[in-house]
Amino acid sequence: MSELIRSLGLALVGTMHPKMLWLSFRPFLIVSIFWGVVIWLIWSPALEMLRTFLTASIFTSWIQSGLEYVGFDEARAWIAPLFLVILLIPIIAISLLVFITFSTVPAVVDSVVKQKSYEGIMRIKGGSLVGSFFYTLWSALICLALVMLTLPVWWIPPLFAILPPLLWGWLTMRLMAYDVLLDHATAEERNQLLEKHRWTLLGMGVVAGMIGAVPTFFWATSVLALILFPFVSFVALWIYSLIFIFSALWFSHFLLHALKQLRQKEQLNTIDTSATLIANPSNPGVIDG
């Protein structure tokens, strides 16, 4: 627990460093430009398709009818944009996390590992960029599928406070834990650390997911956010980016310290084994053969 608090404090302080703020701004800018162009191209046709689907489909027409029944007569005008925004939020957020994982986490880890606390940690590649790519892609696809399957019940209390942080936390744990240890731990060491600290790492991811759920909730439920979607989305994306940088710092401090302790323990075990062999030599009276 003390190491968890220590790494959390270091991550909070480190997030405010100018270098970390720049590392959060760069992926936000690139992803914002990309999705700005995509949304500008698809917004009108996507709205028309969604309006047709919401009206004609037997699975979704009841939503619009229910809203009109309880007094929301103008539901037809804003329900399609609201649904489109709700669909876009997890896709944009996951794409940002994946982009940060590839473009920014290595720089964060390099910055952390140079600190005095982690002197002596050798760089031992236990993975490859190709392996990281497929691991990240597979994890993101699983998370996106789970998001789409559970999205209809996100607004049911208390699921709206449980499902999003849990899903983001699971994805954050998988991506951050793998890439933090990519260059500095062997595959065996990575597996040992992930097995030993699995629930702690998941808890860290869920905490980061809960923080990230705040802009998500405002983005998806505020009428003002719906009207000013392009502008609000840019602000929310930067907040997401900053939270992901904080997560990378938190996981880096925690896992690099855990890796250092693991290697020190293995080194002590090796020394103890050697000392035992020296203190208890083989019986000289035994003749081989």
Present the secondary structure layout.
Blueprint: H1 2-15, H2 18-56, H3 61-69, H4 75-103, H5 105-113, H6 129-150, H7 163-180, H8 187-196, H9 198-221, H10 223-227, H11 229-279
Helix pairs in contact: 1-11, 2-4, 2-11, 4-6, 4-7, 4-11, 5-11, 6-7, 7-9, 7-11, 9-11
Notes on the structure:
With 289 residues, this protein is an all-alpha fold. Helices cover 80% and strands 0% of the residues.
Average pLDDT, all residues: 78
How many individual β-strands?
0
What is the overall silhouette? Answer: elongated
C-alpha end-to-end distance: 54 Å
Tags for this entry?
289 residues; mainly alpha; 11 helices; elongated
Care to give the gist of this entry?
The chain has helices at 2-15, 18-56, 61-69, 75-103, 105-113, 129-150, 163-180, 187-196, 198-221, 223-227, 229-279.
